[in-house]
Amino acid sequence: MNNRAYCIKRISVIVLISALFIFKPNYCYADNQKILEVNSNKKWEIKFNKPIAVYTVYDGIQIKDDKNNVCELVFYFKDNGTRIVVENLDKFYQENRIYTLTVNNNVKDKSGKSLSKSKNIKFKINDKEEYNSSLNTKYPYEDTSDINIKDYPNLSNKVSIMGSSDLIVKNMGDYVLRQNKNPKISVDIYSLAKIFLEEGQAEGVRGDIAFCQSIKETGFFKYGGQVLPEQNNYAGIGALNNEPIGKGAWFKSPREGVRAQIQHLKGYATIKNLNRECVDPRYNILRNIGVSGTVPFWQDLNGKWAVPGKGYGEDIIYIYNKIKHLR
């Protein structure tokens, strides 16, 4: 049997820019690369010579800026795990900043073989282009078939923030663990999912979809953005991109953090009063500025909960549908 190495064959920019890997028996490594100039909404494509273990990319592929800030990434898996498209969760990189894309030896194939050396690509943002989102590429998942919008009608039909949950705890937790085996939370993932359902039911909010919102906000509870895991803040309440990390709201327990998120959602969706004592530090702000009741649907959160937030609500519903159809 040919005992060829598991190694990355190449990593390339989608727009005709490629970086070659150097191969050796049993291992692979890469030579130094010059700083590439790319667009601010750049997506990267990584190609492998054999299928990889999907969960390993979350520790094995990383992008940092020149101030050592880690970008939150979304991975789209293609061709049975031999091709990955990497996108910045914030959609845009900052102009005139230098970033480093690293593929390290935490990436493994399905037999457990890993890279022996990191591959680094440096790139600089030289312009600002409008982000063009597409639902034809997949959200991170082991399934390798493309997902088309017509497969899941709820992506085009608006979904209410208020209402009863229909996801189950097991599927909610299983979905997270398929993408991140070690969520950075102080309770187990199934307990957290249960809390979302309970707190959502108490206020009449879709707690199951609020859980999906937290998956998006935290990157499958890996964090790395403006919020620290110990804040128990699962939706970035009070966190702004231009402020220090950890500046957003802090909550004394996972349940309080979930309750605040549910209350904040209710504050957007309806003018009805809360059923429980308010723990959301920004709930009264919504009421005072006249926003309460103006955002009845998840898709209406675009540009409100997240700024600029294009596709924010649609991404949340996309995750919800992935869990709903989990097998």
TrEMBL record:
Swiss-Prot/TrEMBL keywords: Signal
Superkingdom of this protein's organism = Bacteria
| Domain spans labelled SbsA Ig-like | 37-123
One Gene Ontology molecular-function label? amidase activity
Q: Could you tell me which InterPro entries the record lists for this protein?
A: Cu-Rt/internalin_Ig-like (IPR014755), MGlyc_endo_b_GlcNAc-like_dom (IPR002901), SbsA_Ig (IPR032812)
Q: Which residues form the Mannosyl-glycoprotein endo-beta-N-acetylglucosamidase-like domain?
A: 194-323
Q: Would I find Oxidoreductase among this entry's keywords? A: no
Can you name this protein?
Mannosyl-glycoprotein endo-beta-N-acetylglucosamidase-like domain-containing protein
Q: Which organism is it from?
A: Clostridium novyi A str. 4552
